[in-house]
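Practice problem: predict the structure.
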Amino acid sequence: MHRIALASLALVLGACQQAGEAPEVEIIEPAAEAAPAAVEPDRLATVLAGQPDGVKARFAYRNPQETLEFFGIEPGMTVLEALPGGGWYSKILLSYLGPDGHLIGADYSNDMYRLFSFATEEYLARKAEWVATWTAEAEGWSGEDGAGVTGFHLGSMPAELEGTADAAVFIRALHNLARFRDRGPFLDEALDEAYRVLKPGGVLGIVQHEAREDMPDDWAKGGNGYVKKQFLIDRITAAGFEFVAESDINENPNDRPTTEDVVWRLPPSLRTSRDDPELRAELEAVGESHRMTLKFRKPD
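Answer:
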């Protein structure tokens, strides 16, 4: 192309010189190639890369990137997180959702906490102040570039939150709600509030210690940490949700509990091996629990 253009230009100049004319030639420089658009880095991968080493040590078992992507969580969303606890997932979500997003923390009710053997009056008094203390702490985790924060106790969701969330996640939070279902409507209330907080089409994501189907039903009621998949699917669809899909992201075939075992024997709790280094090493080799990962949807 350039050779042809130069040859044509030479012929024009030669003709003009023979006619005694001073040629007026406008030379147009070839357009510079546009620089490739900058590729925006994966925000979730960046957030995860910035987590402390102790958090990253759990990635092999908790698979936060794959899990949140399976649920369809994206920056700018409003997400309810049940039982945020010490903030392992909260800190990831706050940074990932970003300044246009919002995180709603939902803790168990004090009526349910009273059923735990460890729940002293002092503990219950602290839990009564949880909404204020957790939201203040979570705002500190969020920083200037993180999501906004709201909190409430399951069973007492503020009416103004109804229909505000794009997604709700219950990550290792359902076994206790199932455990005490004979002593109160805790599980049904939590699922009802998850349904009501979501916008039409919103997603409910579940990660839960899974009891295999060959385990006795009495053992798999939640008190040992494990529940059966079909039990949860039945209860969640009865609450109005549509079952969308399941994933093997968080399965662990090495976790094979007997009826004498509880989930807290495994990392990170290692509750049964604190004075037995040999058993501790054996359980650390198993890794964290075998978990189901389920995705549901609130109908439009």
